[in-house]
Design goal:
Layout lengths: L7 E5 L15 H10 L4 E4 L11 H15 L5 E4 L5 H13 L4 E4 L10 H12 L7 E5 L1 H4 L5 H11 L3 E6 L4 H13 L2 E4 L5 H7 L3 E4 L2 H16 L3 H18 L4 H11 L16 H13 L10
Parallel strand pairs: 1-2, 1-8, 2-3, 3-4, 4-5, 5-6, 6-7
Helix pairs in contact: 1-2, 2-3, 3-4, 4-6, 6-7, 8-9, 9-10
């Protein structure tokens, strides 16, 4: 399948909830406008950041629809459809195609562990078959799925057996493996980086696109990293990447996505709290989070408002 490659910063979007944890999708258009203004070049919906695994399938359909409608064709929308039920994931993929999404992506089932690269291909072929007209990206995030399959072997086999497999969302820290996947079959696959704190290393390894959570709040910082890299100013690029690391470390002092939602609130985007099993930050924790962010200069030029 010929598909346009994902480039630049793709925001892994958050799902808005109200005070009692129900969907508050009237917030979606405001967030999409904010991300477009920040120069984000795509939206990755219902992934880990968007708490896709904590939503019902009916809710996932509604969230997907809200982002596709709000984007209105101005930037690509990728819908993450992974589910412990392969049948359910295939149905979510079909829905994504029906509503006009630009691509689908999926994690592997994680309760019953996938035991081989071929079995992973079998699962992803079934899911991708729900949206045969859309590009399909496998979502490799072993820290959450527990899958230890050789990802390069999967891509080799998948390229032969999954007609619409075009790429990979690579959310791991093994730059050598990421680079290996980039080079497979004469650079056939669109391999998109997924660890914000290592963006510079990924750029040096050949990345041209990245999907991440903190692009929701600090896209200007990452744009400056990319600009410094492209200009060959390695000292500046390293300094900027270090600022991103300091920001991420401050956020990671707390439950990460709960802290990110608290930051969205500080910036004027009320997306509520995360659903269980993730917990909300306490009022004292929110105060401490703001203090830590001030210490690393978060509100002084790199934040997306």
């Amino acid at each position: 399948m010929n598909a346009k490659r994902l480039t630049g910063l793709i925001a892994a979007t958050y799902t808005p909830f109200d005070a009692v944890g129900q969907l508050r999708l009237e917030q979606t258009p405001q967030m999409v406008e904010h991300l477009i203004a920040a120069g984000v070049s795509g939206l990755y919906v219902c992934g880990s950041t968007g708490e896709g695994m904590s939503l019902t399938s009916a809710e996932r359909r509604l969230v997907a629809e809200s982002y596709v409608q709000a984007a209105d064709g101005r930037l690509p929308v990728i819908i993450q459809v992974g589910h412990n039920s392969v049948v359910e994931a295939k149905q979510l993929a079909a829905h994504a195609q029906a509503i006009g999404a630009d691509a689908v992506s999926a994690t592997c089932p994680s309760y019953f562990k996938v035991q081989s690269a071929q079995l992973l291909v079998d699962c992803m072929r079934e899911i991708a078959g729900g949206a045969p007209n859309l590009p399909f990206y496998y979502y490799h995030i072993p820290v959450l799925t527990g899958s230890s399959i050789d990802i390069a072997q999967f891509m080799q086999l998948g390229g032969q057996q999954i007609p619409n497999l075009v790429g990979l969302k690579y959310t791991d820290t093994k730059l050598h493996e990421f680079q290996q996947c980039l080079k497979l079959q004469n650079e056939r696959f669109d391999v998109v980086w997924g660890c914000d704190e290592m963006l510079l290393g990924a750029l040096a390894s050949g990345s041209t696109g990245a999907i991440g959570s903190t692009y929701n709040i600090a896209a200007p910082l990452y744009h400056q990293i990319i600009a410094a890299f492209e200009a060959g100013d390695w000292n500046e690029a390293r300094a900027l990447q270090n600022q991103a690391i300091e920001m991420i470390n401050a956020i990671g002092t707390f439950p990460f996505h709960s802290a990110m939602k608290a930051i969205l609130g500080m910036l004027g985007y009320d997306f509520g709290d995360c659903r269980l099993p993730q917990r909300a930050l306490t009022p004292d924790e929110k105060i401490r989070l703001r203090e830590l962010l001030c210490q690393v200069g978060f509100f002084e030029g790199f934040v997306t408002r």
